[in-house]
Amino acid sequence: MSRLPVRKTYKLFVGGAFPRSESGRTYEAEGQNVARASRKDVRDAVRAARGAFPKWASMTAYNRGQVLYRLAEMMEARHAELADLCSGETEVEQAIDRVVWYAGWTDKLAQVLGSSNPVAGPYFNFTVPEPTGVVGVLCPEEPALLGLVTRLLPPLVGGNTVVAVASEAKPLAAIELAEALATSDVPGGVVNILTGLKAELAPVLAAHMDVNALDLAGADGDLAELERAAAANVKRVVHGAADVQSPWEVLSFLELKTVWHPIGV
Amino acid sequence: MGGGWWGEPAPRPDPKAEAMTELERKRGGAPVPADWTYAPAPEARDIVSLRERYGLYVGGEWIEPHAGETFTTIDPSTEEPLAEIAQAGPEDVGLAVEAARDAFENGWSALAPSERAKYLFRIARILQERSREFAVLESLNGGKPIRESRDVDLPLSAAHFFYYAGWADKLEYAFPNRAPRPVGVAGQIIPWNFPLLMLAWKVAPALAAGNTVVLKPAETTPLSALLFCDVVRQAELPPGVVNIVTGDGRTGAEIVKHPGIDKIAFTGSTDVGKAIQRELAGTRKKLTLELGGKAANVVFDDAPLDQAIEGIVNGIYFNQGHVCCAGSRLLVQESIYEQLIAKLKRRLTTLRVGAPLDKNTDVGAINSRQQLEKIEQLVESGRDEGAEIYQPPCRLPERGYWFVPTVFTNVAQSYRIAQEEIFGPVLSVLTFRTPDEAVEKANNTPYGLSAGVWTEKGSRILAMAQRLRAGVVWANTYNRFDPASPFGGYKESGFGREGGLHGLEPYLRFDP
Questions:
Q1: Do A228 and B281 touch (CB under 8 A)?
Q2: Is B488 in contact with A256 (Cβ distance < 8 A)?
Q3: Using a CB-CB distance cutoff of 8 angstroms, which residues of chain A are in contact with residue B178?
Q4: Taking the model in full, what pTM does it have?
């Protein structure tokens, strides 16, 4: 007699834990019951992200790079599971390689994007990139895994924390990735993943006053409406592509700080 | 940057502050410096010749506004009318955008970058040559002290053009492997606090990157932008590369809405900035916003105190406090609070408020009646909420818009004067005990444009600079600007940078 497999319950990933939606709702996707997050879940996730921000942002770039590299290691270990939940092996490999590529950027961004500025006066004047804060990401619908990784890594590399709304039709890869995140050294709350209906969650995320930037990569419907809501606290709005990698993607989620340091004896 | 308007010694050096205070007490509390008399030292006004009436500068020519509507621009220090200014309507903005598009497509964007550079160098030189004329005009129309327009606005405006001129033919080094290309037509809307300097911040990088521009100066300060048209003429810039349309907020709204504009750059209030961001939603137009601020100027107990006093004064009373990055919240470490406040109050009695064109004037006129009313209203709220007000004895002129330099002590973080941008010569003082508390209070506003740190300890400067959520951090100085130094805000102070290599990016598009 064959053994009956133990099924997984697909839940949200908020503050490093896997809660159900506080609303108790689910929806069916890819043949599974998946948590259907509520407005309250969005707010809880933003709170978790804000709480995690100071630690993640002030980590040394070398350390952040190692933590993200560790994520690639964890994904490699879940290679087969991830492949089942996306278009297959190739997509998983691309996604893992992209994580590794970005992990190597943490300690190079300031050198490529920053500057020292020759001002006319006795000051050492320099410009450094810093994370903008909490970033809301509406993940692309496709490719399920690569699209998620493509949009998740740029804000993370720069030291931001993220609240991501997963692909609505294919959310399972996101939850699988959340499990990799939970077992890597990424601190709880740095990445928060919500599953549910984008039409329900996107406006809440776009209007949230404690979200600093919004990536509309996977937004559908009235984008202009989301952008208008984002103006309430002057959010940085990004229209991310689903398959791209570059340091300029990271720059979209960075602020540039210029310091005038006196020179004198 | 010209003469040392910052950190310049007080009119009388103050080595024995305590002794002076004692003397003042003996004289029945009357502050001595207020009694000092100065002979008037007016800068000659006749270097500026104004027309009675100005049109719109479109396609290298002066045109009359389509609807024929005009308004009067005044000298805010006397309320005397200076000239009639055209109110540009939708048709006029349309013509300006057409002229800019035409200039972009037919010549400017195809011009050899090294030639573009030479036009900008010419503009920088002409601004230097005509700097006295511009400085007088700037003070006349804006109310700012001639010392500031002469030593800050003008040298910096010329320097901006000179700096960006050099970038025009070096863009591929600034953005290697990204094939930088101009955006097209830039719509630029600037404020009234630094009329010519803000024009330079906008026009210089836009042109260097190969764009053409439609610029709207602020309603109350159009004259220096209109005189700049003459610089454009003298530089023989091709027609349509720079177009200047004047008017109030309606003209600005037409620029923002115009479908023929590829990029909007706005400097002004956070409320208007949000409205512009909403208006542009869904258009994918490039946007940069340089908005309001409520900067913390943090003074530690080991700070060089006399230098800090000068920095605090310069931080908030420079340009009547009409500065988006003004150090409007003073955070003082408790152990030096009494001493610092005593010194600050004494220094305030030496500030000379008066005629903008007088070379001894420290604080000029408030830019407009509307702004004066806003300042008065917020100061009233400060009193009502329970803050303690100090204003030095001060004789204000009878006509014009004036406000006495003001300090509020006993301010709670929740007070409106600690949260809202006043944009006037009003300082709110708060205290802290530990660096952590200073950081928390400094960051406790929706803004994030600038901050100041005063301490003798270099490591503390850098630690504070790291933790302050602001785009510009000044250490042991304040309100210092340079074309090579990027400027712009965090949070609701806007996005995008002006100045430096980073200031080019908003005016370029790149291959994906």
A1: yes
A2: yes
A3: 248
A4: 0.94
